[in-house]
Write a structure and sequence with these properties.
Blueprint: E1 4-5, E2 12-16, E3 20-25, H1 36-42, E4 46-51, H2 66-79, E5 86-90, H3 92-103, E6 108-112, H4 119-127, H5 129-133, H6 137-148, H7 157-162, H8 169-177, H9 184-197, E7 202-206, H10 212-221, E8 225-229, H11 237-240, H12 242-255
Parallel strand pairs: 3-4, 3-5, 5-6, 6-7, 7-8
Antiparallel strand pairs: 1-2, 2-4
């Protein structure tokens, strides 16, 4: 099925396949198209729904709060007749997936390379705020763009993934600085609360060895954690190891039945 925009939620999505529902949330500056190599390998077994977050891909508008994004995603999922999906999020999208799973019914969660120890990251981003809001945005964002690791992907996957990315100043500023503008401590407290509410299986796959503090945090806050660290695979671990990732997600989903 081609991409469709739902006029009730104004979130664009792609809905393919039949079977147990799996919802995919992309990372900041990317779009639902980023998930295509994964969905192409899963669509014969599951119903795969990839969503464009507000301001990304074909979805209009920018977010006003984390709760607003959660409601809009849930409204779309409900309108599609989906009740308890497995929700998969990459990077910033995994934070949304975590918040969603804390508030809405899901069968399981897959977190792709996103630490939930967010306080230090929020603190760093706030130090960079004057640069990212100013005329030197492109130069200031370039090291962040490079750290995402798209350049580590082989061709033609590297070019096709870059084609799904749109780096816009208003988009980055909205997601990093306008979602309620919490302090690092307040944002960490919100993530702590959300993680503590999740009782369904939670698979976290990282593309590097985690610092002990991050690993201990996940083990302490998530009741049904399955943690895997795939060394030296980078932030785009799901695309760097597409077959391995889809096989692991398949085992995870099938274990929930």
């Amino acid at each position: 099925m081609e991409a469709v925009e739902d006029t009730g939620t104004r979130l664009a999505y792609e809905d393919r396949g039949t079977g147990s529902p799996v919802v995919f949330i992309h990372g900041l500056t990317f779009s639902k198209e980023t998930w295509r190599p994964i969905i192409d390998r899963l669509v014969d077994r599951y119903r795969c729904v990839a969503i464009d977050l507000p301001g990304h891909g074909e979805s209009a508008g920018l977010p006003r709060s984390m709760d607003e994004v959660t409601r809009r995603v849930h409204r779309l999922i409900t309108d599609l007749g989906i009740e308890r999906p497995v929700i998969v999020g990459h990077s910033y999208g995994a934070i949304f997936a975590t918040f969603y799973a804390a508030q809405m019914p899901v069968a399981g969660v897959v977190n792709v390379d996103q630490t939930l120890l967010v306080g230090p990251v929020i603190g760093m981003s706030q130090q960079m705020e004057p640069l990212l809001r100013g005329p030197s945005f492109a130069a200031a964002f370039e090291p962040i763009r490079g750290s995402i690791g798209v350049d580590m992907l082989p061709e033609p996957l590297r070019s096709s993934t870059l084609a799904t990315q749109t780096v816009r100043q208003d988009l980055v500023v909205a997601y990093w600085y306008e979602l309620g503008r919490p302090s690092p401590e307040e944002m960490q407290a919100q993530v702590d609360e959300a993680a503590g509410k999740i009782k369904v299986p939670y698979l976290a796959i990282f593309g590097q060895r985690l610092p002990e503090e991050d690993r201990a945090y996940l083990q302490r806050h998530l009741a049904a954690l399955q943690l895997e660290e795939w060394a030296e695979r980078g932030h785009m671990v799901h695309l760097r190891e597409t077959e391995r990732f889809t096989n692991r997600v398949t085992r995870f989903i099938d274990s929930l039945r």
